[in-house]
Design a protein that fits this description.
With about 300 residues, the chain is α+β, with helices and mostly antiparallel strands. Helix content is about 30%, strand content about 15%. A hairpin with a 5-residue loop joins strand 6 and strand 7. The chain starts with a helix and ends with a helix. The relative contact order is 0.16. Keywords: Disulfide bond, Hydrolase, Protease, Signal, Thiol protease. Belongs to the peptidase C1 family.
């Protein structure tokens, strides 16, 4: 019985990871669209009462037609009917891209670490880098919506790394990448993954499937992600490899490739505005707990 439950759970996860597809004929009538919505709900295990289902069907129809219309265009990226397909753009922004990230460097004073940008004098970087291949990136997580993990630093006074059994990893601080400078960002990513904030609130980002994202987006930073590499397509389009936190079913297995090297200094979706990385300059681990004020400074 236990084996059966394990296999059943595996099949559910496999189905979700394989994504959801449709045929153009399913868009030809209200009836076929309604059946498509039912199939989508079964695929994602979404339950709705009759009143809510009618409301959500109208949203779903709008999003499906947007996906179909966009994919007919000659864009470098594609959209799909993912798990966000029956929520409005406004709901998506509020729930998944509503962090309203402030410019950390303006609020928190001087950076910690070596006192500057350690990669400033780097003169050459590889053509492409993928930190996933080097074992430096953990599995993609699904954070759900922004209220799923309501972290409050006031609830935790100290970082008690010394109380953890086995090996622990600590950092000495962090540094900021010079803002509005994708070349500086490239130097940093060539040496390690880099945390960034982006504007992830567009409809196309909501329904992104694959390819290099060149869609419209602003610089209202509202979502935290990590750049784990960069590269260039066969046709010469440069991109960042970005690790998201909306599960493996979104995008390219939980990742998005965002266009790199655009004319605007802030980068596509503001990716060059708020970038930072951890520093480890010592080989010893301090056993003193980190005070609460220090925790706030690091956040």
């Amino acid at each position: 019985m236990k084996l059966v439950l394990i296999l059943f759970s595996f099949l559910i996860l496999l189905q979700a990871s394989q994504g959801f597809d449709y045929h153009e004929k399913e868009l030809e009538s209200e009836e076929s669209l309604s059946k498509l919505y039912e199939r989508w709900r079964n695929h994602h295990s979404v339950t709705r009462d009759s009143h809510e289902a009618l409301k959500r069907f109208n949203v779903f129809r709008h999003n499906v037609l947007h996906v179909h219309k966009t994919n007919k265009k000659n864009k470098l990226y594609k959209l799909k009917i993912n798990r966000f397909a029956d929520i409005t753009h406004h709901e998506f922004r509020n729930s998944y891209a509503g962090s309203n990230v402030k410019h950390h460097r303006m609020l928190c004073g001087p950076k910690r670490g070596s006192g500057g940008f350690m990669y400033e004098n780097v003169t050459g970087v590889p053509i492409s880098v993928d930190w996933r291949e080097k074992g430096a990136v953990t599995d993609v997580k699904n954070q759900q919506d922004c209220e799923t993990y309501p972290y409050n630093p006031d609830d935790f006074g100290f970082c008690r790394a010394k109380n953890v059994e086995g090996e622990t990893v600590t950092i000495d601080g962090h540094e900021h990448v010079p803002e509005n400078d994708e070349e500086a960002l490239l130097k940093a990513v060539a040496h390690q993954p880099v945390s960034v904030a982006i504007d992830a609130g567009s409809s196309d980002f909501q329904l992104y499937s694959e390819g290099v994202f060149t869609g419209e987006c602003g610089t209202q930073l509202n979502h935290g992600v990590a750049i784990v590499g960069y590269g260039e397509t066969e046709k010469g389009t440069k991109y960042w490899i970005v690790r998201n936190s909306w599960g493996r079913e979104w995008g390219e297995g939980g990742y998005v490739r965002i266009e790199r090297g655009i004319s605007e200094n802030e980068g596509r979706c503001g990716i060059a505005l708020e970038a930072s990385y951890p520093t480890k300059l010592t080989t010893t681990t301090t056993h003193e707990p980190v005070a609460r004020d220090d925790v706030k400074d690091e956040l």
